[in-house]
Amino acid sequence: MIDLDLRAVAHQLQQAALAAVDPAEAVYRFVSRMGDQILVADRTYPLREFDRVFLIGAGKAAMPMADAVSEVLRDRLSSGVIITKYQHADRPLPDHVRVHEAGHPVPDRNSVEATRDLAELLRDVTPRDLIFCVISGGGSSLLTLPAAGITLADLQATTQLLLRAGATIHEINTLRKHLDMVKGGGLARLAQGAPIVALILSDVIGDDLSVIASGPTVPDPSTFADAWRIVEQYDLADQLPAAVHARLSHGASGEIADTPKPGNPLFDRVQTVIIGSNAQAAQAAEKAARQLKFNALLLTTQGQGEAREVAKVAAAVAREIARYNRPVPKPACVIMGGETTVTLKGRGLGGRNQEIALAAAIAIEGLPDTLIAALGTDGTDGPTDAAGAVATGDTVRRARAIGLDAQARLADNDAYHFFQPLGDLIITGPTGTNVNDLLFILVT
């Protein structure tokens, strides 16, 4: 069946994309050692000029990134603290590097305790110490140190409110930066003038450094006023924890000092390098599609918006190809990257990529020789064990045959329990990387 062939093609595209953003290989592309010198992109760090070298970081890809950095530093690595998501500590690091696992997408007690350990490590650093900092997606939750007067429970409640309201990652992180001591340049402030090499695996549309992991080592262009506007936009003021409401409202009125801004000399000693991104993954998938003799088009890496609305766009593209052979002729592969959101109204289980696939399945019902696959490059989609799901023109019919109502499942945000019995979930397990989401539209 052509459907099975397209599934194999989608899997090959997925593998090519993930290989292109392997975190360890990405580190090695930018960081190397020649004798007593560490080369990072276009800069050189003579190790003889530093008393100690530390390794810190947080994110879903922190372990492979830290592993690669420690391999380069070898005997010069003094100590470190790495924070990653539960079940992502998949390899040993040197004994003097402490590894913590913590909560994502909502911070938990381990997030706070681990970040305190990291902050304690930096307590006595000097300008004669060198700090390597590895940052990847998930860092906003994993790297958490509540501001004065804010509790972990306050942060958890606020994050959940924003997620349920369908706030974008930019909006969520704007609030996080103004409720936390390490976000929005706070980690650079803790380094007390020690030079920092920040290696970034981007999980943010447009690779905005101030948004990735809430920008712990870079200036923060957002303000308390911006944070309060987001609260008002989603009509959350009356639902916020009292301490959060007080801090944000007082900050917006100028009663609390804001985060460090662009131009602050604090950042003169920070080198920031983006070592991997959604664009790299999407371009690798495009190349793989061409090698498989598909007419490939990378449509965008800036995709965002409500998941089910993005699905309608993807379905429209598929129907345009099927009927008119445009924007690319059959056999066609159109690739989209980015990150969508889901406004939760139901009580089901799923994630943004599974929701895209379910809405797409409804929109392409009956369309032959067509497949739409949506997946998170980190291997997880929402609070599930799936990375995403696959939809074809036959999905809704197959579901109906076993008593599944696609529209009802979509209304309940229950894509997981729709695709699971069909065997159409994409299950990869933790991939060790994280560069947003990918969507493949295949039409033959």
Estimated structural class: alpha/beta
Q: What is the alpha-carbon Rg in Å?
A: 22 Å
For the record, the CATH architecture of the largest domain stands as 3-Layer(aba) Sandwich
* Number of separate strands: 15
Percent range for β-strand residues: 15-25%
Which blocks of ≥5 consecutive residues have pLDDT under 50? Answer: none
> What is the overall silhouette?
globular
CATH topology of the largest domain: Rossmann fold
Average pLDDT reading: 95
Q: Main sheet?
A: 6 strands, parallel
Q: Look at the structure and give the CATH class of the largest domain.
A: Alpha Beta
Helix segment tally: 16
Q: State the CATH superfamily name of the largest domain.
A: Glycerate kinase, MOFRL-like N-terminal domain
Descriptive overview:
The protein has helices at residues 2-20, 23-30, 62-73, 109-121, 139-142, 152-165, 169-177, 186-190, 224-233, 242-252, 278-291, 307-324, 352-363, 395-401, 406-411, 415-419; strands spanning 31-34, 37-40, 43-46, 52-58, 77-85, 97-102, 129-135, 196-201, 270-276, 295-303, 332-338, 370-376, 388-392, 425-426, 437-443. The chain has a six-stranded parallel beta sheet with strand order 6-5-4-7-8-9, sandwiched between helices. It has a six-stranded mixed beta sheet with strand order 10-11-15-12-13-14, sandwiched between helices. The protein has a three-stranded antiparallel beta sheet with strand order 1-2-3. It is 38% helix and 20% strand. It contains 16 helices and 15 strands. The chain is globular, with a radius of gyration of 22 Å. It is of the alpha/beta class. The termini are close together.
